C-alpha cells in the first residue's frame, strides 16, 4: 500500500472540493472547496508545502479525469513539481458501487478518490511533449470542425434539392470550389437558362480546365436546368439561405485547411510521424491523429495495453461455465484514435487498380471474412492488427517494410 500524504480532489467546472490525507484513512482536514483561481491555487500549494514539512514526504495529487476541467489543475501541480495521478472515472465508479447506500456528494467523493489511489498501483500522469499537446488539441479541433462541416453539407444539400434538383448530376463533388461558384452565381434552373453560354463559361474558368471541358459542363448545366423541377414555394428565401450556406462552407473549408496545415507542422517535430506515414493506408490526417493520441510509445509496455487504450480490445463476458464468443469491443479508450485507426484500415484494405493499398492488411481482412466474420467485425480485427503493427514500428523506430 502507498504510504505518502495525498491531496485528493473532486474536480468540478470552476470550483472543486479537496481533502488532505496523511496516509490511508487518516485525513488531516475536512473536505474544503477552492476556486480555480491563481490565489486559491497558491494557497493550496502552501498547504502542500506545510504537509511535506510535517511528514517529510512530498505529497501526491490525485484527481478523477473530468475532461477539460481537470487539465488546468493537473498542469498547475505538475509545473509545481508534484506527482499527479489522474484516475479513470470507471475506477472510482467501481468503488462507489460497493456502497450499500447510493450517495453522491463531493466531500464523500474525495474520500473515494483517495481510497482508490491508496489501494491500487497507479502510474504518474506525465505531461506530454509540447508539440504533441499542440498536435492533440489541433487534431481534436479538426475532428469537431469536420463534424460541423459535414452537418453544413447535409443542410446545404437539402436546400439545393428544392432549388436545383438535377445539379448534383453535373458535379461529382457538390462542395468543390467550382460547383459552389456556379451555384453562387446561378442558384436555380431559371438563372442558368437565363444566362448566356459565355457567362457560364466565365464562371467555370477558375477551375483551369480545357476549353472542351468548359463546353461540356455548360451543356450539362443547361440540360440539368431543363430537366429540373424545382419547388416554386419560398424560392427567394431559399436562394438567400443557399448563398449563406455557400459562404459558410467556403469559410469552414478554409478553417479545415488551416488546421490541417498546422497539424502537419507540429507532427513534423516528431520522428514518429514519417514512420506512421510509411504504412500504406495511413494518410496525413490519420497519421497526425494517431501520433497525437499515442504520444510517446514508451507509455505502453505492450501492444495489448495500446490496443486497450484504443478501445478495440474485446470485452469479456463469462459466468460459471458459460463464456460468450460474441463479444463487442470495449470502446473504453480514445475515440479519436479508434476513429483514425478505422479510417486507415478501410483505406489500407481497399482494392485499387494496381491491387490493395496494404496487401498485408487486405490478406488478413479476407481471411477473417472467409472464417465467417461479418465485414465490420473483420475490419475491427484488421484495425487491431494495424495497431499492433504500429506498435512494432514505433517501438523499433523502423519504417514499414511490407514483410508479413
Q: Ranges with pLDDT <50 over ≥5 residues?
A: 99-104, 316-325
| Biggest sheet details | 6 strands, mixed
Q: Write down the Rg.
A: 28 Å
Share of residues in strands? 5-15%
CATH architecture of the largest domain: Orthogonal Bundle
Q: What number of structural domains do the residues give? A: 3
Span of the ends, CA to CA: 45 Å
Helix content: 55-70%
What would the CATH topology of the largest domain be? Helix Hairpins
Structural class assignment: alpha+beta
Helices and strands, in order, run as EEEEHEHEHHHHHHHHHHHEEHEEHH
Characterization of this structure:
The longest helix has 34 residues, at 130-163. It contains 16 helices and 10 strands. α10 (235-267) crosses α12, α12 (284-294) packs antiparallel against α14 (335-349) and α13 (303-310) packs across α16. The chain is α+β, with helices and mostly antiparallel strands. The strands form 3 sheets. Strands 1, 2, 3, 4, 5 and 6 form a 6-stranded mixed β-sheet that branches. The chain has a two-stranded antiparallel ribbon with strand order 7-8. It folds into 3 domains: 6-127, Ribonuclease H-like superfamily/Ribonuclease H (Nucleotidyltransferase, domain 5), CATH 3.30.420; 132-267, Helix Hairpins (Orthogonal Bundle), CATH 1.10.287; 272-320 and 327-396, no CATH class. It has helices at 38-55, 70-79, 89-97, 106-118, 130-163, 177-185, 189-194, 197-204, 211-227, 235-267, 272-277, 284-294, 303-310, 335-349, 359-370, 375-396, and strands at 6-10, 15-23, 26-27, 32-35, 60-64, 83-87, 318-319, 322-323, 351-352, 355-356. A hairpin with a 2-residue loop joins β7 and β8 (322-323). Pfam families: DEDD_Tnp_IS110 (PF01548), Transposase_20 (PF02371). This is Transposase IS116. Residues 9-165 form the Transposase IS110-like N-terminal domain.
Amino acid at each position: 500500500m502507498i504510504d505518502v500524504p495525498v491531496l485528493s480532489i473532486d474536480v468540478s467546472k470552476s470550483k472543486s472540493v479537496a481533502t488532505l490525507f496523511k496516509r490511508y484513512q487518516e485525513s488531516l482536514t475536512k473536505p474544503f472547496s477552492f476556486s480555480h483561481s491563481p490565489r486559491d491555487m497558491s494557497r493550496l500549494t502552501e498547504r502542500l508545502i506545510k504537509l511535506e514539512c510535517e511528514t517529510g514526504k512530498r505529497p501526491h495529487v490525485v484527481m478523477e479525469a473530468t475532461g477539460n476541467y481537470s487539465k488546468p489543475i493537473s498542469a498547475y501541480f505538475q509545473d509545481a513539481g508534484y506527482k499527479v495521478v489522474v484516475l479513470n472515472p470507471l475506477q472510482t465508479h467501481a468503488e462507489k458501487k460497493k456502497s450499500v447506500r447510493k450517495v453522491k456528494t463531493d466531500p464523500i467523493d474525495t474520500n473515494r478518490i483517495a481510497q482508490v489511489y491508496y489501494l491500487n498501483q497507479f502510474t504518474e500522469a506525465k505531461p506530454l511533449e509540447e508539440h504533441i499537446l499542440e498536435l492533440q488539441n489541433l487534431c481534436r479541433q479538426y475532428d469537431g470542425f469536420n463534424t460541423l462541416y459535414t452537418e453544413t453539407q447535409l443542410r446545404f444539400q437539402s436546400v439545393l434539392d428544392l432549388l436545383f434538383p438535377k445539379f448534383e448530376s453535373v458535379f461529382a463533388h457538390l462542395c468543390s470550389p467550382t460547383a459552389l461558384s456556379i451555384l453562387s452565381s446561378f442558384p436555380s434552373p431559371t438563372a442558368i437558362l437565363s444566362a448566356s453560354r459565355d457567362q457560364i463559361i466565365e464562371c467555370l474558368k477558375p477551375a483551369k480546365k480545357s476549353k472542351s471541358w468548359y463546353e461540356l459542363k455548360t451543356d450539362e448545366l443547361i440540360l440539368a436546368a431543363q430537366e429540373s423541377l424545382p419547388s416554386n414555394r419560398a424560392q427567394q428565401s431559399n436562394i438567400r439561405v443557399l448563398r449563406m450556406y455557400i459562404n459558410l462552407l467556403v469559410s469552414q473549408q478554409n478553417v479545415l485547411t488551416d488546421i490541417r496545415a498546422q497539424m502537419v507542422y507540429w507532427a513534423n517535430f516528431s520522428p514518429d510521424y514519417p514512420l506512421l506515414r510509411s504504412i500504406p493506408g495511413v494518410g496525413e490526417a490519420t497519421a497526425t491523429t494517431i501520433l497525437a493520441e499515442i504520444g510517446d510509445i514508451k507509455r505502453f509496455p505492450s501492444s495489448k495495453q495500446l490496443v486497450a487504450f484504443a478501445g478495440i480490445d474485446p470485452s469479456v463476458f463469462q459466468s460459471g461455465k458459460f463464456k460468450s464468443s460474441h463479444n463487442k469491443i470495449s470502446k473504453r479508450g480514445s475515440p479519436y484514435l479508434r476513429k483514425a485507426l478505422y479510417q486507415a484500415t478501410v483505406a489500407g484494405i481497399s482494392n485499387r487498380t494496381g491491387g490493395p493499398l496494404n496487401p498485408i492488411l487486405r490478406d488478413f481482412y479476407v481471411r477473417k471474412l472467409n472464417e465467417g466474420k461479418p465485414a465490420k467485425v473483420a475490419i475491427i480485427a484488421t484495425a487491431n492488427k494495424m495497431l499492433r503493427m504500429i506498435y512494432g514500428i514505433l517501438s523499433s523506430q523502423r519504417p514499414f517494410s511490407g514483410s508479413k
